[in-house]
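Subject: Sanity check before I submit

Could someone independently write out the structure tokens for this chain? I want to compare against mine line by line before I put it in a report. The sequence has 214 residues.
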Amino acid sequence: MDPQVLRERRRDPPTHMGPGYWIVVKSFRLLLRAGWHLKTEGLDRLPPRGPFLMTPNHASEIDPIVLSAAMPFRVTYLAGQELDRYPLLFALIRLFNPIFVRRGVGDIGALKACLERLARGEVLVVFPEGGVVQPGLGTLHEGAAFLAIRAQVPVVPVALLGLTKMWPLSARFPRPSRVTVRIGDAITPPSRNEQRTTELIGQIRSTLDRLLQR
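---
Independent answer below. Compare away.
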């Protein structure tokens, strides 16, 4: 990514993040690069300005930390409100200033919050599988496509590679692996009047399949 564009992207959006966020992200970036050879491919494919959606595959529970460590600017996540049952984890999650979602119900408030964050220029990450899937790619839900069409923002599929090997669902601790974050080309959503969510989610899936197999 062009250095000037990157400087502008770091200033956009103007959401203030405290020092705790940057300490956590930079610490994990160093750890992942040293221990798991974290590599990011395709930063030049990201839209240089404005809001957009990122739609990664959900390969492990630590995907948000890995993606944040790989990105040179802040991104916004969705997080389950039920995680407030775990105070330490919840405190860590709050450093990322996420949008909290009540799972299992139609959370209109969370939908409005997503649209408001996008309107402010934020980059929003939505895992279209809805939960961790190992191995391979699971069924993609249409929420990300709906948001992209409603907000009229590009969608950038992202493949997270090496995470299933690094942290299998059955493992208590991480294992040796090489972690790569591979960014695909941005997809322009259809017009708001068309509402072709199924078609758009199909494009996202085909791009993710290609990125994961390279």
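---
OP: Matches mine. For the report I'm noting this point. The mean pLDDT is 88.
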